Amino acid sequence: MLRHLLVLSLMLCTAAHAAAPQTLDDGVFWLPGSHAPGAQPDGNSVLLRGAQGWVLVDSGRHAAHTQALLDFMRAEGQGGAALALVNSHWHLDHLGGNALIRQQWPGLRVYASAAVDGALQGWLAAYRRQLEGLIEKPQDLDESSLSSARIDLALLQQAERLRPDERLSAPQQDLTLAGRKLRLGVIKGAVSGGDVWLLDLASQTLVAGDLVTLPVPFLDTACAGGWQAALATLAAQPFTRLVPGHGPVLSRQEFQHYRESYGRLLQCAASAQGPGACADQWLQDAAAWIAPAEQPRARAMLGYYFQQHLRAATRDRFCSAPP
Ligand SMILES: [Zn+2]
């Protein structure tokens, strides 16, 4: 499966480069994650400016993404301030940049769920061995696959720098970080075994990590049914704007539509309908968020997830215990 994941994500890539973070609200900025041709993705990152410094949610994977976040915070004149980094989950497109930030920002405090520790010993350790095997036979890889493998392996060789300082576990807690009033929650058994969501109370911005992803739900390490329950948990929070792990910022109403569309996707997967018909329905439901040029890629991803996940005998493998 790991090899499939690597090959699939290499196959599906489009545009690349980290621009500067964009303003969403007073003291609220986001840096959209890129998904360049021949490269693995970066997740979206969110920056919140507080009286004592910064809160950053997710650090990206590629150095260009992470460096753009660091440059922005310094340019805004709070280079020596406190920095609290919250990782929504352990996937490398959301936490790989921790290593670079640790090097460049003394006093950094990283908050994440304990699932990071389990993943570093399990899923990510297996992925690291897979990458080492791939790199031993570079002649079997094209240039972009080799480059992607080297980037991820370099991150995993600094695994200790990816670990959090503080482990979050409460389903919901209020916390003030860098002077910013936040509500954070951890959901187990949804997308990664330990998904952290964060609500910025002042701007009513919910940072959802991969509990919301576009152009399709990224089911690689997910419990599909647990994910549906997690969307209900998010819906109970008083947000007006939601930043997903991948894809555009959504209004509350758009999130509601995403949630219903996800439910229809699971219903279709459980029915006798073919994967093509289910993909048609999803593409219709999510049409506002998927550019026409991106539709073939979204369809290919859904085909992959139907085969490897939604219709696989092992589809519930992430439902009982964290990966
Ligand atoms: Zn992601």
From TrEMBL:
GO terms for biological process: antibiotic catabolic process. Residues 42-246 form the Metallo-beta-lactamase domain. Residues 1-18 form the signal peptide. Coiled coil: none annotated. Keywords: Signal. It comes from the Bacteria. SUPFAM superfamilies: Metallo-hydrolase/oxidoreductase. This is MBL fold metallo-hydrolase. The lineage of its organism: Bacteria, Pseudomonadati, Pseudomonadota, Betaproteobacteria, Burkholderiales.
